[in-house]
């Protein structure tokens, strides 16, 4: 990624924190790029188009093509029926999950309605709209989203086989604890968390280390921040052992 791209991204961070979008229209432009360049119904082509856009046109804050295979492998090992994702953004990681587990339902939670619209455009074009759903809200919004997940999307006790966390880094641990309190995970459920080193989720990492071998078994994958090879990052893959 060029210095100019980094500068544009940095300037857009206040907008991203507030609205979920960088503020220069890149998310909608990504959807248009996928629609224009990837054949309809082709998940591989849609993912390639998003990666190409992120590298050539404008940086995107999805898991990306270096860390993505770590998510793919974790999903395949879990062979899930239901995947819960926190943080949809443009729908890239949900596409990867749908490709890795074609029989699974993927329910993705996203606080930005605009991002949800972008993701739905991409999912529809890629042909996965029947198995991937976006719920607009947050786990910490006072119960509205939790109720929607349970009542409308079948997220109930022991139902979540894979949880992918890639949203507000400050909410990683609190949202995981809320999901545990709901009993939605079961022994053997897998939790994958992106960006644990950068921007960083130190409380989440410390929690996993504190409970290593008792409640969780975690592998820390050393990798890089999306779409570059200089800044280090961590993806944590944690198997839930039960309470």
Automatic annotation (TrEMBL):
InterPro entries: SAM-dependent_MTases_sf, SAM_O-MeTrfase. It is an enzyme of class 2 (transferase). The keyword Manganese does not apply. GO terms for biological process: methylation. It comes from the Bacteria. One of its GO terms (molecular function) is O-methyltransferase activity. The keyword Lyase does not apply. Keywords: Methyltransferase, S-adenosyl-L-methionine, Transferase. Its EC number is 2.1.1.-. Pfam families: Methyltransf_3 (PF01596). PANTHER family: CATECHOL O-METHYLTRANSFERASE 1-RELATED. This is Class I SAM-dependent methyltransferase. It comes from Mycolicibacterium rufum. The lineage of its organism: Bacteria, Bacillati, Actinomycetota, Actinomycetes, Mycobacteriales.
């Amino acid at each position: 990624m060029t210095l100019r791209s980094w500068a544009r991204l940095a300037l857009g961070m206040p907008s991203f924190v507030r609205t979920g979008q960088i503020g220069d229209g890149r998310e909608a432009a990504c959807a248009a790029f996928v629609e224009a360049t990837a054949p309809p119904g082709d998940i591989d082509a849609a993912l390639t188009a998003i990666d190409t856009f992120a590298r050539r046109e404008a940086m995107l804050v999805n898991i990306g093509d270096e860390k993505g295979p770590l998510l793919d492998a974790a999903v395949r090992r879990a062979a899930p029926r239901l995947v819960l994702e926190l943080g949809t953004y443009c729908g890239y990681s949900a596409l990867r999950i749908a490709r890795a587990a074609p029989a699974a339902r993927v329910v993705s939670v996203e606080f930005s309605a605009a991002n949800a619209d972008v993701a739905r455009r991409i999912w529809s074009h890629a042909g996965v709209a029947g198995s991937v759903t976006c719920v607009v809200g947050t786990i910490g919004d006072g119960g509205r989203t939790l109720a929607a997940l349970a009542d409308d999307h079948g997220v109930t006790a022991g139902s979540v086989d894979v949880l992918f966390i890639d949203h507000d880094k400050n909410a990683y641990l609190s949202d995981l604890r809320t999901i545990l309190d709901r009993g939605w995970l079961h022994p053997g459920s897998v939790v994958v968390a992106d960006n644990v080193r950068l921007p960083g989720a130190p409380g989440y990492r410390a929690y996993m280390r504190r409970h290593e071998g008792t409640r969780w078994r975690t592998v820390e994958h050393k990798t890089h921040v999306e779409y570059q090879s200089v800044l280090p990052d961590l993806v944590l893959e944690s198997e839930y052992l039960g309470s």
